Amino acid sequence: MEDQKLEVKWLCTMRGKIPEPAMALENLMIFNVEEAWIESPRLNAKIKGPAGDWIRLLPNGNWRLDVRLLFEGDDGSAIHCFYNGVLRMTPEVAGWLESGEEIDGDKMYFRATPYFETQSEKYAWLNDIATVGKMRSFGGGNVVYDLFEVL
């Protein structure tokens, strides 16, 4: 069998500020994303809204993400971003989150699979790619992902 590998290329950094979540159910947290932006040489956009993050708390403590965001590109276009993801909740990560501190992404497994949809001519290429997101830092009301285009 040939050596198989997945190639990715950094696409952008997505940053956001999130308030305390609302607990809709014992196992469902909802974050109203009020401030977020994307920065890179190829893609620049800011949150326009509506935007939210629905997190299911699984029986093993892990988080299952369901995120939907509406961005406005620097060309004025609407860019829909949606993704699922997972945070492996270890006792150490849980303790950091409870204390409210910002956690370095290398200290946790927090991954996502963002996709984009837009009518923008400038950003039409987003419709045709798959991406993976790796959390760079999380906590203290801030979130920072690095997104990578899967080649």
Key descriptive features of the protein:
globular, Porin, 8-stranded antiparallel barrel, mainly beta, 151 residues
Q: What's the topology here?
A:
Layout: E1 8-17, E2 22-25, E3 28-32, E4 35-39, E5 45-57, E6 63-73, E7 78-87, H1 91-99, E8 103-104, E9 110-112, E10 115-118, E11 131-139, E12 142-150
Antiparallel strand pairs: 1-4, 1-12, 2-3, 3-5, 4-5, 5-6, 6-7, 7-9, 7-10, 8-11, 9-11, 11-12
Total domain count = 1
Amount of beta strand: over 45%
Percent helix, as a range, is: under 10%
Number of helices: 1
Q: Give the strand order, joined by hyphens, for the main sheet.
A: 1-4-5-6-7-9-11-12
The main pleated sheet reads as: 8 strands, antiparallel, barrel
Low-confidence stretches: none
Write down the overall mean pLDDT.
95
**Which value, in Å, is the CA radius of gyration?**
16 Å
Span of the ends, CA to CA:
21 Å
Write the element-wise H/E pattern from the N-terminal end onward.
Answer: EEEEEEEHEEEEE
Query: What's the count of strands?
Result: 12
Approximate shape? globular
- Structural class of the helix and strand makeup? mainly beta
CATH class: Mainly Beta
- According to CATH, the fold-level topology is Porin
Named CATH architecture: Beta Barrel
